[in-house]
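Lab notebook page, bench 4
Experiment: in silico fold of construct C2
Operator: M.H.
Input chain length: 400 residues
Purpose: comparison with the prior construct
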Amino acid sequence: MIKKPNIHYCKRCLYPAVSVNLSFNREGVCSACLLQEEMNSLTPAFWEQREAKWKELVTQAKATSESNYDCVVPVSGGKDSYFQVDKAIEYGLKPLLVTYHGNNYLPEGQRNLDRMRSKFGADHIVMGPSIEVLKKLNESCFRLMGDMNWHCHAGIKIFPMQVAVRFKIPLVLWGEITWSVAGMFDMNDYVQYNKRTVYEHDLRGYTIKDIVEKTPGVNEKDLAWLRMPSDHEFADSKTIGLYVGNFFDWNPNKHTEEMIEKYDFELSEQPFERTYRRMSNLDDMHENGIHDYMKFIKFGYGRATDHSSKDVRSGYFDREKALEMVEKYDHVKPRKDLNRWLEYVGMSEEEFDHIADTFRSPKVWWIKDNQWHKQTPRGDVKSYGQVNLSESETEIYFKE
């Protein structure tokens, strides 16, 4: 018997229980809020110890590097990229900037990326796969997993490691601690870059072979930038990936203000259709648009929930303000961004809506009067548009 979904939301922020890797305590507070509470209690003495550890690693990297560079910094041109490079140079590392370019930068994002080479006086490698291949990956990965930006998540996490291993560069400096958004790890875990996280999360469990089989006109040579270095290659190069967030307090709002002042970092000039922040995801116009809309379709929440929940935890918002943002943005179908993407891959909106509906989670959505319904963070129920599935395709959903 199919039960009617009953979504549990965090009592402090707005994260739903369907969020990946999230857990709750007996008081109904999510693991991400509990981690932030723990981080807010860290003392200056704690961060001094972490800085001392950082200095040890910097000294070791400079002493052992067999390359002209001490570290690779994967950069998209975003605020976090600027902060990572700023910290590398402040402590005397010579960085090589490495970018995976997915072909969908906003103008402000492209200018931010181009500016890094001159502002930091650093060498910069940009890897841009064939545009035709990228268009095919956009379409096939949307059909396969409901994620047109799969190539971005994969390329960003793998190509910089290829470069570091090839040039025997000992350090790769990533930014925010992986999975801090769900509170999966705490500060004493010293999370490092690892293959398992990349395969299971960033690549969604798919391999190059899977993608080639599902993408007509694309072969393994077209996806050479997706080949993860082997364990032997990692061991031979002595390359490790570290998160700067393990050593310095990570505050995106504060970092943005600092990077604007020091390096003329640009925010998006135009507001996004699905979130209030203008400082994030400028390296791909669809991240805050149709890609994020698919997250709402799948799990019933979007980037406005992500951003406002983080701002609640950091003290920028109270929960009522966060609710206003979620109610304003989370459900919006981004017309401008959708039209651009449909033209980019050559798909009709009718086909898009049908494929998108096949990814709706029955743990979130149910059907009433041929409309999709779900619970809101306030506890009431709302409808969110017509069902675009055949009768047989709706058999897994509760019907009221």
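Observations: The chain is about 45% helix and 10% strand. The domain at 44-252 is CATH 3.40.50 (Rossmann fold).
Next step: discuss at group meeting.
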